[in-house]
């Protein structure tokens, strides 16, 4: 098993050789190791996943909690050696089951939630934000445990995210891709 080096470009084929106990992402060929999540992060992720998965029971869309590999494909990337964007969002929702294989999601998910930590702020707010937008992820949430804030970005008709809708722990968030679903943030941030 090879371990990523600083000045080298990587693909999904490389990713498959890295130790399973470590969480890595590749953005434009650059490897990023993810820090272990905090207890607060895990509680938030668990509650968001619970609410989403309960709603999606018996529906065609499914929610997948991390670790879950998402390969964001640029057009003609057919082989593992060609794929240069591999992410592991905290929660991924996929409605097109043909994108799911034994390795995760091969293509653009419908919704992604990232829970930021001090080590992931730049990647979640800038690098991944831009990749999710250009890949066509319909809804992208950035959850901030410290401030108990959720920013919801929705893909507009022009293929860009509009201004975010901002929510606090006292709000219920309407999920754009599921208009009849509201996520209660009070229970998401409870005990923080």
UniProtKB/TrEMBL annotation:
Residues 13-184 form the Putative restriction endonuclease domain. InterPro entries: Nuclease_put_TT1808, Restrct_endonuc-II-like, Uma2. Pfam families: Uma2. Coiled coil: none annotated. This is Putative restriction endonuclease domain-containing protein. It comes from Desulfitobacterium hafniense.
